[in-house]
Amino acid sequence: MAAVNQDVVEKFLDSNPAFAKEYYDSHFRAQVISNMLSTSKNTNVDTTNYHNLSSTEESEMVFDMVRDLQENLQMEKAMFNLMRHLCFVMRADRMSLFMYRQRNGTAELATRIFNVSKDATLEDCLVPPDSEIVYPLDTGIVGHVASVKKMVNVPDVTQVVDFKKSVRQVLKNVKTLQISFFYHFIIWINHKGSFLNDFFTNVTFLRFAQYYLFETKEPLDVTGWTIKNVLSMPIVNKKEEIVGVATFYNRKDGKPFDEMDETLMESLTQFLGWSVLNPDTYEKMNKLENRKDIFQDMVLYHVKCRKDEIQNILNTREVYGKEPDECDEEELEAILVKTLIDSEQSEIFEFHFCDFEHSEMDLVKCGISMYYELGVVDKFHIPREALVRFVYSLSKGYRRITYHNWRHGFNVGQTMFTLLMTGDLKRYYTDLEAMAMLTAGLCHDIDHRGTNNLYQMKSGNPLAKLHGSSILERHHLEFGKTLLRDDALNIYQNLNRRQHELVIHLMDIAIIATDLALYFKKRAMFQKIVDQSKTYESWDDWTKYMMLETTRKEIVMAMMMTACDLSAIAKPWEIQSKVALSVAAEFWEQGDLERTVLEQQPIPMMDRNKAADLPKLQCGFIDFVCAFVYKEFSRFHVEITPMLERLLNNRKEWNALKEEHEAKLAMLEEAKKAKEEAATSGGAPASQSKTCVLS
């Protein structure tokens, strides 16, 4: 006999491709597929009984699996098609999918896609919410699989006994009976340590229950189908939490599901798990999106300027006897000319502007006036009604808290306006950019809660979970953009696409820049720009250069936002001293929350027990935070020098108060020392020492 070696075998296989394919399919294909798909350790199993798949069938099946999983708009269809493919691969007559959920704290399983077979349609198998069947986790094999998170294989159901007891138990446990769509029956038994469960269709539930009480081998539907064996597998997520249960019924060759089927099912169920989790995630995202829209509508209802409120500025009912939206722009303009406060009278061009003498409605009118003074209302065709509604709504969007309220928001917008106009920084920016910067200033702290970013993180506020950095700043930005998305408030509605993208981009940068953590990172870059400006002999040449330098303009804009946000420190002393107390009061309120809610000791700046240290803290704040930005802006543009001068004057005032406080503390310390020395001196008796101290 000739020796058999590798070359002989290969030659034989090449000459007999049909035999080679048959041998490979029966001995290796199942294990190869399992190895490719399984994430767990594979078990050596006998694959000789595995059915054959043609290469065309296998390629089509895998392609359809991947394709359907990527079709987010047809999630249910993808899942259904995948289940049909799995039925084919597993040689099962039918398959059902049951989803895990909790309602009112009770864990339960419910039908999702039911009675899938190779020739079934999605319409026949998809269970709508009003027709689903719900039952507890402790019922049947599916409930058992979900509870223990392990596969269960029932090879022969014909030996099941005690059906009357099983059905009675089921009738107690089934929570929902839907006769209009699918009819579901649960058999709960104890057979060699296993539980059994199945779902049946196309007969009325009660009739089927009566049928099965006395005969175990009758068909379960009009097609004559009966259950012979069951294979049920849990579907879990990455956290090993139960998501659902997939169940196969009846191998087509009449044999029970074997160990090979279990291994293959464990591998293929990964695809089903992805298909289940994808639509669930998609559904959750849709619900979140709907919930967000509802909350946004609620917020706009309370923040948006109402029809009666707009009459405080656009009193069209009194003047024309009609609503603002029934008036043309010329009619609205005529009212605004009479209603708005004169810019010189209100001093909105001045760095020393004081809001104390203005009502909140006056500040709304001044805010509208600043858009007119920038020359952007006519240039960009801002509807008068939208402009009034927008600024009015901004004032309502600020909470009525101690410091970060509408007055602060307006002051920041006014300082931005003054830096652009009086400080001559507008020379570097277009009208469109200036409009975006003014809007950013007015919006920059809208819906502030009176607590800082660190408190949002410590308290676990949802904002901290939503925004990873610059938490409040990002919230203010999103709130402002939400208002601008409303047609009635959108002052950008007549911009073209490129213009709109630019103003939103600049607002993003400007508002996020009010996070002081970012200010410290940009100080060196701003200083280099100021230094560079001094190398130009011609101011016009420097202006032309800067106008084309987008990055440098954005850095200057970011520093302008910081100068605006801190501008109270550069106001006249009579203004600064009062505002500082408001800022401190809000800090102390946060400190109280940290002490009571978080049970933490607040830092000195937020500890009302250390209120006497306010002058010292203000001096430190000026030295380490504020001085740089106003010194550099004064060096950059001499027109901004008044801000630096007032800052330095306020530094002297706070320092004087600090020294006065320290002198009082020194006197108290000396008196305490003298008392201690007198008490510890051994010369005079206690009564005599007391007399000496009193004298």
From TrEMBL:
<dbReference type="Pfam" id="PF01590">
    <property type="entry name" value="GAF"/>
</dbReference>
<comment type="similarity">
    <text>Belongs to the cyclic nucleotide phosphodiesterase family.</text>
</comment>
<feature type="binding site">
    <location>
        <position position="565"/>
    </location>
    <ligand>
        <name>AMP</name>
    </ligand>
</feature>
<dbReference type="InterPro" id="IPR036971">
    <property type="entry name" value="PDEase_catalytic_dom_sf"/>
</dbReference>
<feature type="binding site">
    <location>
        <begin position="404"/>
        <end position="408"/>
    </location>
    <ligand>
        <name>AMP</name>
    </ligand>
</feature>
<keyword id="KW-0140">cGMP</keyword>
<feature type="binding site">
    <location>
        <position position="565"/>
    </location>
    <ligand>
        <name>Zn(2+) 1</name>
    </ligand>
</feature>
<feature type="binding site">
    <location>
        <position position="445"/>
    </location>
    <ligand>
        <name>Zn(2+) 1</name>
    </ligand>
</feature>
<dbReference type="InterPro" id="IPR023088">
    <property type="entry name" value="PDEase"/>
</dbReference>
<feature type="region of interest" description="Disordered">
    <location>
        <begin position="674"/>
        <end position="695"/>
    </location>
</feature>
<dbReference type="GO" id="GO:0004114">
    <property type="term" value="F:3',5'-cyclic-nucleotide phosphodiesterase activity"/>
</dbReference>
<keyword id="KW-0378">Hydrolase</keyword>
<feature type="binding site">
    <location>
        <position position="408"/>
    </location>
    <ligand>
        <name>Zn(2+) 1</name>
    </ligand>
</feature>
<feature type="binding site">
    <location>
        <position position="444"/>
    </location>
    <ligand>
        <name>Zn(2+) 1</name>
    </ligand>
</feature>
<feature type="binding site">
    <location>
        <position position="618"/>
    </location>
    <ligand>
        <name>AMP</name>
    </ligand>
</feature>
<keyword id="KW-0479">Metal-binding</keyword>
<protein>
    <recommendedName>
        <fullName>Phosphodiesterase</fullName>
        <ecNumber>3.1.4.-</ecNumber>
    </recommendedName>
</protein>
<dbReference type="InterPro" id="IPR003018">
    <property type="entry name" value="GAF"/>
</dbReference>
<dbReference type="InterPro" id="IPR023174">
    <property type="entry name" value="PDEase_CS"/>
</dbReference>
<dbReference type="InterPro" id="IPR002073">
    <property type="entry name" value="PDEase_catalytic_dom"/>
</dbReference>
<dbReference type="Pfam" id="PF00233">
    <property type="entry name" value="PDEase_I"/>
</dbReference>
<feature type="binding site">
    <location>
        <position position="445"/>
    </location>
    <ligand>
        <name>Zn(2+) 2</name>
    </ligand>
</feature>
<feature type="binding site">
    <location>
        <position position="445"/>
    </location>
    <ligand>
        <name>AMP</name>
    </ligand>
</feature>
<feature type="domain" description="PDEase">
    <location>
        <begin position="328"/>
        <end position="661"/>
    </location>
</feature>
<dbReference type="GO" id="GO:0046872">
    <property type="term" value="F:metal ion binding"/>
</dbReference>
<dbReference type="InterPro" id="IPR029016">
    <property type="entry name" value="GAF-like_dom_sf"/>
</dbReference>
<dbReference type="GO" id="GO:0007165">
    <property type="term" value="P:signal transduction"/>
</dbReference>
<feature type="active site" description="Proton donor">
    <location>
        <position position="404"/>
    </location>
</feature>
<dbReference type="InterPro" id="IPR003607">
    <property type="entry name" value="HD/PDEase_dom"/>
</dbReference>
<feature type="compositionally biased region" description="Polar residues">
    <location>
        <begin position="686"/>
        <end position="695"/>
    </location>
</feature>
